[in-house]
Amino acid sequence: MRMSKVALVLLAAGAVAPALNAQAIPVSSGFATPRVEISAGYNFIKANAPPSGCECFNLNGAYVSADYNFLNWLAVTGEFTTGHANKISALGQNLTLRTYMGGPKVSLRMNRFVPYGEVLFGEAQGSDSYFPTATSYTTSASSFALSVGGGLDVNLTRRFAVRVPDVQYLRTGFPNAADNEQNQLMIGVGVVVKFGARDAWSSPAPVVPPRPSEIEFSCSGNAGNIEPGQLLRIMGDAKTTPDQLKVVYSWSTNGGTVTGGGRSISIDTTGLPAGEYTVTGTAALASSPSTNQSCEVAFRVNAPKPAVVDTPVPAAAPTAAEMKKDKEFHDNVPDALFDYDSYTIRPDAQEAVEHAAAYLMAHPTINVIIAGYSDERGSAEYNLALGEKRANAARDSLMRLGVPGQRLRIVSYGKETPVCSTQDETCYQQNRRAAFALSR
C-alpha cells in the first residue's frame, strides 16, 4: 500500500552503488555481468497466525525486486512482496501482508548458473486482519521485516533468466498479545530481466595493438628490348598500410645511367654494349626506413643493326630542266620534322606528307628517295637505326595516302651530313627529319 517505500529502498541502493561502482566488474564466461537486474514472479509465504505459536497458514501473492551490480559478485537489492490469505483462524479474519526491504546481495556467477545469498531489512505491513494488544486490537499494523536467504538464477540468454527458486526466512514483529514475533518461510519463483549487460562496461576492452605499417612495391618498364642509346622509362607503384603514408624511392642499375627520381625514372643507355641488364628500385616508409620493399625490371640492349646506306654514285651535272624539276619537287614535297628520340609523325609533319602525297599522285612517273636523319646526340649506331625508323614512318604514311610502295625507297644517314651544326634546340630540330629527294 505504501508504494513509496519501494522507491525509497531502490533510491538507497542507487545512492550507495555509484560510489562503489568505481571498481571494474569482471566478465563471466559467456554472460557479462549486467548493470541492473529486475525480477518479478509468484511469492508464497508459510506464515504464523497470531496471537502465538504455529497455527500456520499460507499466503499467495507476488514479488518484485531490483538489483544494482557494482561488482561481479556484489550488488545492492530492493524487494517488494505482497500476499493474501482468507480465514486464517477460528475468528475468520483475513490477512494481507506486504514487505518493503533492501540490502546486500552476494552472487557466484558460474556462467549459466548464478547462485546467490542476501540479507534484507525493511518494513512489513499487515491489513484486513486482527492484531491484538494487551488492551485492545487493530485491523492493521506495521512491523520491522528481516529476511535471510538465497536462490538460484538460470541464465537463458544475456538478457533473460529464470529464478528457481528464491527461499528466505522472514521475521516480523506484529502485535499478537504474546511475544509479538513471527517466523515465516517465504518462497518465490519468477523471471529476471537484465539491463546494461555489455562487455565494455563489465571490464576494460582488450587493447588491440595497432596494425604495423606495411608497404607493397612493384615496378615496370616501357620496353624489354631496346636499341643502344634509347631511353628506358621505369614506373614504380607503392601501396602502404595505412593508406597514403609518405614513401621515399631509390633506384640503381647495372647498365646505363639513372635520370630523374621519385616513382618514375629513365635509364639512359647511350654507349651501353649489347646485353642484359637490371634496374632495382626500393620504396621505404619515410617514418620507418626499415619498412621497405624492392622490385626489379630486366631489360636487354640489342646489338646495333647495320644501317642501309646507299653508296653515292657520281652523277653528271644536272641540266637546267632537271634543276627546274628538282625545285618544283622540293616546293611540293617538304621535309617532315620529328620530336627528340621519336619517329612518330607529328601533326605538322602529317600536313607535309599529305601535300607530298597529293603531288606524287598527280605525277605518277616520279620515284622518291626518303632519307632519315637525327640530331647529333646519342651513338652513331642508335641514330642510324632511328633515322631508318623515321624514313619508314614517312614511307608508310605516303603509302596509306595511296602512293605505291615501289615508287618509294628509304635510306638512313643518322646523325651524319647534318643541315645544321649549332648545338641548340633550333638546330637539333632541323636535323631530326625525313627528307624527300627525286630518284634518278
Automatic annotation (TrEMBL):
Residue span(s) of domain OmpA-like: 325-440
Keywords: Cell outer membrane, Ion transport, Lipoprotein, Membrane, Palmitate, Porin, Signal, Transmembrane, Transmembrane beta strand, Transport
Highest taxon of the lineage: Bacteria
GO biological process per UniProt: cell division; monoatomic ion transport
Pfam family, one: OmpA
Primary location: membrane
PROSITE patterns: OMPA_2
InterPro entries registered for this protein in UniProt: Bact_OuterMem_StrucFunc (IPR050330), Beta-barrel_OMP (IPR027385), OMP/PagP_B-barrel (IPR011250), OMP_bac (IPR006664), OmpA-like (IPR006665), OmpA-like_sf (IPR036737), Pal (IPR039001)
Membrane topology per record: Multi-pass membrane protein
Signal peptide region: 1-24
Protein family according to the UniProt entry: Belongs to the Pal lipoprotein family.
PANTHER family: LIPOPROTEIN YIAD-RELATED, STATOR ELEMENT OF FLAGELLAR MOTOR COMPLEX
Protein name: Peptidoglycan-associated protein
Gene from which the chain derives: pal
